[in-house]
Amino acid sequence: MSLPDRTIQAPFPKAEYESRVDRVKGRMEARGIDVLVSTEPANIAYLTGYDAWSWYTPQAVVVALDLDEPLWIGREQDMACALWATHLDERSILGYSDDHITDVDRHGMDCVAGQLVARGLGAARIGTEDDGICLTPRGARHLRAGVPGASFVDADLLVNWVRTVKSPAEIDVMRDAGRLALTGMRTAVEVIAPGVRECDAAAEIYRALIAGTGDIGGDAPWRPTMPSGAKTVTPHLSWTDAPYPSETAVNIELGGCRHQYHVGLSRTVHLGPAPEPLRRLAGATVAGFHAMLERVEPGATCDEVQGAFRAEVARHGYEKTSRCGYSIGLGFPTGAWVERTASLMEGDRTVLEPNMTFHLVLGMWAAESGFMFSETVAVTEGGFEALAPFERELVVKA
User: Fold this and answer.
1) Quick one: how far is CA 170 from the chain centroid?
2) Among 18, 106, 192, 338, which residue's CB has the most CB atoms within a 10 Å radius?
3) How far apart are CA 28 and CA 31, in angstroms?
4) For the segment 324-361, what is each residue's pLDDT rounded down to a tens digit?
5) Where in the sequence of the chain do the CATH 3.40.350.10 domains occur?
6) What is the topology classification, in CATH, of domain 14-163?
7) Where in 210-279 does DSSP place strands (E)?
8) In the chain, which residues have pLDDT < 50?
9) In what helix (H) or strand (E) does residue 189 lie, and over which residues does it extend?
10) What are phi and psi of 279, to 5 degrees?
11) Residues 193, 206: Cα–Cα separation, whole Å
């Protein structure tokens, strides 16, 4: 397949993707992996620029030490998407027919296996992303059956760890995502009010996140969570079609999304004077946040950063049982915006490096109420850069 006017819309130049593939190959060599079959949408986008929402059918990017560039393999009708969205040579874009998704005896991974054998990789040591969502048990069986002479190893998170340290170009895109997140949060604070339906507020927030800032537009963001009232003790519920009452709290977690790169941002809005227990919880959480920021710098460990938060909130009589954040970046609905690598939690000895990006998630869910507060930061040579700095307090709409 070819396009008469192939205008590539990948968000980064070809050299950026070549550098990423080289770093992935370096990790493959270190682990004795000849071929990587990457099936996670965020990793496929990272390696090639491909970001079409076709991940509900089998697709993969194959990186092989003996191949000059990756292979994109997916449904035939999506080959045009790959031609449009990647810098790959047309000969590296391969497809399978629709009977591979409708016939119970066939599978898209049959095509992947056939391409490996055709390129002399039938006896290779092949790495697959075994804990990902998109390589199903059936798909894995078809892949292994189609390359009987190969040996298979779990290469889950191999690409994710390469993704954890961003390039300067990626940091620039995340700065844009941060601007989108700020636009979304300002809109949320503006539109959430007594009598407004929760779904109408959500629609305005989506509009702001996608319409963007005038000079940049946003991609489809991860679904905001917006529990209100008694539901603020929950972390991941969202909106209903009920109107907001007065004298209630709303926890908002949203993300700006640019080229599928996300910057998370959370705040709690209270409609009317806030009760004292919520004010105390908010004050302790924000104090803990500032204590964390003082520890965000190259050389610190994730454990040390999160420990600063826990020590500070303990002084106020509070305890947080969940992690305090995680590495954030490229994201698709199959895995949200979490990179599944470094976590700000007890025992994580990952050392912070410049251009790592973290969502500092400080949700505190007490028995009677919850308070949500988060920001995304990039580690710099001298400390950190806040990518979406918003009012660092409980937001009260009297």
Assistant:
1) 13
2) 192
3) 5
4) 999 999 999 887 899 999 999 999 999 999 999 999 99
5) 14-163
6) Creatine Amidinohydrolase; Chain A, domain 1 (3.40.350)
7) 248-258, 261-271
8) none
9) helix 168-191
10) -65, -40
11) 17
How buried is 303 (Cβ within 10 angstroms: 0-12 exposed, 13-18 middle, 19+ buried)?
middle
pLDDT tens profile 75-102: 999 999 999 999 999 999 999 999 999 9
Reported pTM: 0.95
Q: Give, in order, the Cα–Cα distances in Å from 273 to each of 200, 231, 279, 285.
A: 23, 19, 10, 19
Three-state DSSP at 83 gives helix
* DSSP H helical ranges for 192-221: 198-211
- Sorted by sequence, the CB contacts under 8 Å of residue 4 that are 6+ apart come out as none
What is the predicted pLDDT for the residue at 1?
Answer: 63
Question: In whole angstroms, what is the distance from residue 358 CA to residue 374 CA?
Answer: 10
What mean pLDDT is reported for the chain?
A: 95
How far apart are alpha carbons 214 and 63 in whole angstroms?
38
Concatenating the DSSP letter of every residue in 9-62 gives --SS-HHHHHHHHHHHHHHHHHTT-SEEEE--HHHHHHHH----S-TTS--EEE
Q: Which two tokens stand for residue 121?
A: 């990789």
Give the tokens for residue 105: 């005896």
Q: How far apart are CA 36 and CA 102, in angstroms?
A: 26
> 284-324 pLDDT, tens per residue?
999 999 999 999 999 999 999 999 999 999 999 999 989 99
- Other beta carbons less than 10 A from residue 139's beta carbon: 20
CA distance 89 to 93: 7
pLDDT at 367: 64
CA-nearest of 140, 111, 142, 110 to 127 is 140
Cα Rg, the chain, nearest whole Å: 23
Q: What's the CA gap between 394 and 396, in Å, rounded?
A: 6
At 6 the pLDDT is: 74
Confidence (pLDDT) at 38? 98
Percent with pLDDT over 90 in the chain:
89
Determine whether domain 165-397 maps to CATH 3.90.230.10.
Answer: yes
